[in-house]
Amino acid sequence: MNAIVVVDKNWCIGKDGGLLVHLSKDLKYFKEKTIGKTLIVGRKTLESFPGGKPLPGRKTIVLTRNTSYKAEGAYVCHSKQEVLEKVKDLHPADVFVAGGGAIYKQFLNDVDKGFVTKICNEYSGDTFFPNLDEDEDFALESEGETIEENGVKFKFCIYNRI
Length: 162
Prior knowledge:
about 20% helix, Dihydrofolate Reductase, subunit A, three-stranded antiparallel beta sheet, single chain, nine-stranded mixed beta sheet, 4 helices, alpha/beta
């Protein structure tokens, strides 16, 4: 299973339920990596997608504690175990944990590869991703060249579970 995330220098991923910054090159990268795959997201993350609906070209599994929650075009699960049951027959490379913060934390032990867009700036935020640079279970596989978009510098990094 993979995780895909955008972090700042402090591994912050968001504030007040939103992204820190919108980067079109990162959105393109996200699409390239996840198209045709299965996304695992929390309810708030799904509701932050355009129109509050699953992204086209991907299967979406929503994990929520709200037992009456319905999401058109998505599978709704109410426990981590239910999600794992739903993806058990899929190849792990075809499954992406895509947020938010609580979902990342719940599934980090199941993640073998992290696709991390690292922003070189520091933002004020309230939601964080575990720092893979300090996690002895992960190693940096590759670090792309620094890209700049609208004054924001960032790079695409890939981490592997050791």
